[in-house]
Amino acid sequence: MEGWDPNTKSTLTQIPLLTTKAGPRDGAVWTQRLKEEYKSLIAYTQMNKSNDNDWFRISASNPEGTRWTGKCWYVHNLLKYEFDLQFDIPVTYPSTAPELELPQLDGKTQKMYRGGKICLTVHFKPLWAKNCPRFGIAHALCLGLAPWLAAEVPILVDSGMIKHKDDATTSTET
Amino acid sequence: MDDELLELQRQFESAQQAKSSIRLSERNVVELVQKLHELHIIDFDLLHTVSGKEYITPEQLRHEMVVEIKKLGRVSLIDLADTTGVDLYYVESQAQHVVSDDPGLMLFQGEIISQSYWDSMAEEINDRLQECSQIALAEIATQLNVGSEMVTSVLEPRLGTLVKGRLEGGQLYTPAYVARVSAMVRGSARGITVPTNLSAVWSSLQQQLHEMDGASGVAIDGSFFQSLFNGIVKEGEVLGSLRAGVHWTPNVFAIAQKECVDSFFSQNSFISYENLNKLGISQPVQFLQSRYPEGVPLVSVFVHPSMIEMLDAATEDALERGSWIDSLSVLPASFGPQDAFKIMSLCPSVQLALKSNKALIFGESYVFSNGFVKVVYDQMEKELEHFSVSGSSGIIPSDDSQFVNAAKAGHDSNRSIESFDAGSESGKSKQAVEKGPKKRKGKSAGNAGAPESVSDNQEYVPTKSKKNQRKGKDTSSLQVSDSKTGAKKESVRAKEDNLSIPSEEWVMQKILMLVPDFEEQGVDDPKTILRPLANHLRPMLINSLKARRKAVFTENADRIKRLLDNLQRKLDESFLNLQLYERALDLFEDDQSTSVILHRHLLRTAAASILDTLLHNLDIHNKLKNGIEVEEAQNSESVSLSPGERTAIAKSFPGSLSNKALAVVDALEGKRVETFMDAFREIVEESGLLLKKLDKKLERTLLHSYRKDLTSQVSAETDPVSLLAKVVSLLYIQVHHKALQAPGRAISVAVSRLKDKLDDSACKILTDYQTATVTLLALISAATGDEEDCSSDRILTRRELLENQMPALKGLVLSASQS
After folding, report:
1. How many Cβ contacts (< 8 angstroms) between chains A and B?
2. Contact list, B2 vs chain A (CB under 8 Å)
3. Mean pLDDT, all residues of chain A
4. Backbone angle region of B655, left / alpha / beta, with phi > 0 → left and psi within -120 to 50 → alpha
5. pLDDT band at A88 (very low <50, low <70, confident <90, very high)
6. Residue B379, pLDDT above cutoff 90
7. DSSP state letters, B52-105
8. Comparing C-alpha atoms, which of A86, A11, A73 is closest to residue A48?
9. What pLDDT digit, counting tens, does each position of B748-773 carry?
10. How far is A44 from chain B (nearest CA, A)?
11. Is there a contact between B20 and A60 if contact means CB atoms under 8 Å apart?
């Protein structure tokens, strides 16, 4: 579990674990798995809210629940930078972790694969593999996206790659 | 899509839509609070918790503290600081507020304690007390972890209500227990009939309780008993009086005491303090005086005035009869001599008599009328006259010190006699011959040392004189007083030690003889009265003795003078002769045996006679000085004493004179004339006489007269034997100008010495005559005394032969003397 800051770790441990090992093609069992995913997400969201650390909105964009879209944001220097978030549940899920995409930042940073898929730390995969099938979407967000945002947004802002939307408007205006 | 999934979707949606709670950082909050303070929105004190993460208002803190206190009723501030998480300082300051607001709370040694706590504790204590019947406060205090004073202050208001018991001397007792102990105290107090120290009683009670309770019993303090006792006394359950808190005198005792004193005093009209002491009255005089104001306190008894009246009557009677009385014989047996003295001084008749010198008090209890004393004194004085000497020991009058001093200083004896005359003139002309029975020693010496002063005291204060007397016996104190009076007085006193004055014992004896009453009347120890009486009489007697002696001196002075003159004359003459003879001895110094013979001869003859004269005269002188009558007629010229007599006389001389005299007597027995001469000179000097030295001129005149004397003797001499000695002496004078005194045995040597000084014919005559004399003497000594043998004839023939030769011999010296 090394490689993450203690805050992340404590949060991670509080997210309820899943039990059902099922992929999108497993029919009813997948539904079961999806329910667990929802419960875990609810718990994680509530936890974030109660800690005044709410940072994303997502929802399943298809009834099967294999594609998820939403928004995520990060506050830097009292400015809120918000990005679109989307990802698919891979067929081999839960053995394979979902690939989180921030399409707005595609090409703006090196820590990203083509198509806006974020690069995760070397520690992520083994941890995920080890905890399969107990980790779900909530865990992926907590372990993957949250640290990535915390690391990359300040650099991107400072390098001027991204601008706050107010600044953007003012700058366009000017 | 089942419902559950939909439901979950919806829930997730709503969860995401829910407003997120807003979180502020601590820093922000602190800043906010500061801002609020600045803006005076918060206008009261805020306190921090120890962790620094919380603010708390004083009201809240107080509230929390009160809650905490109510839980147990007793909380320490430190615990409060822990539970509230606020610094102890604020807790303490708030605790003050809390305690001052609520009268049911108290702050005690860093703890807040509520009254309810004490109530519950009191209940607990009460439970235990009822079980054990007694608890020590200290025990409770240690149990509650508070001071015992605190416990006392808390328990006191609850005694009798919550705690059913009694607090006494650091102990709690149940009423039953108190009742039991107080019953014990009452019992013991009632049992006491004599004055008692209560603490002793309490300790015995303690012992009893301890035995009853066994080891579990708590030691009860004496003060508990004392307070119970005080209560009992106050209620009048026991009667008596308490002094100094612990001395209990029961009423019954006081009553008995008073009755006893009353009955004794009214029956006997006196009571001794000793009796009162036995009855337990420690200050008898005050007690009696307060009870019988008319009574008179004496040294050891307390008397009713009637007693004085009785004694007064008795003494008055005795005084009127001119007799004496022992007041002790009149008074009850328990009166001491001091009491008697004091009571007598209170008798009007005695006072009157003393004032008018009609009575004397001796030995503290004896009253003598002056008439009686006078009669005794007169008789005593008469007695003194018949008083005879015993022993020939040297007796010197008391005031001869002048003489001794004068003699010591080498003054002429005449002078000393003069001083005697002067002294005796002042004396009264009473006649008395004093003859001391023996040398005074020890005891009486001190008294005689200062007879005058003692007599002054003795007149009216016999006690003092007694003391003086005792002091006098103590030689050390005597010496102390001596050393103070200085060297001169010391020597006087030393001399006076040798005085012979009637001793106290002697006077007492005499009084007893004169007044046999003293013994008959059953006086236990006649000395108690005789001694003071004797002390009173003695100085007067001594004075009269002295006066008499002085008179004798005046009479004897002339005789002494004559005697001494006579002696001096005799001494001069014979001593010069002795010296003359001594010179002649020098001739024979080389011949040892002859010299010894000659020395001895001289000592036996001339020296002995001169010494005897001296000793005899000195003896007479001595006696005269002491006022002893000496027969005048005994002044014969020729006194010859035996060696024993000489020693006796020598010993009878006073002091150093005696030593010198003994030395000279010894020297007389020796072999050397020189030693005798030295000793003789010393004794003569000591006795204040003078010796003439032989000088050339004197020697010549003496020799001349001696020669003339001898010549005439020789010419008149008819006895052939004694002629030889004289002729030889004469020849020595002629030849050597020395006066030889030679005994018969030394004649031959003397003759042989003359040989070379005389011409042959004279020498032959002398030798022949000498040999003839020797043969004659030998014959005479050999003669048996019987008539029948022929020795008498031969003596006769020899004598005739000698007589024939006599003229030749006479011619030898007579012619030489004329030439």
Report:
1. 47
2. 31
3. 87
4. left
5. very high
6. no
7. SS-EE-HHHHHHHHHHHHHHHSEEEHHHHHHHHTB-HHHHHHHHHHHHHH-TTE
8. A11
9. 777 776 666 666 677 777 777 777 77
10. 10
11. no
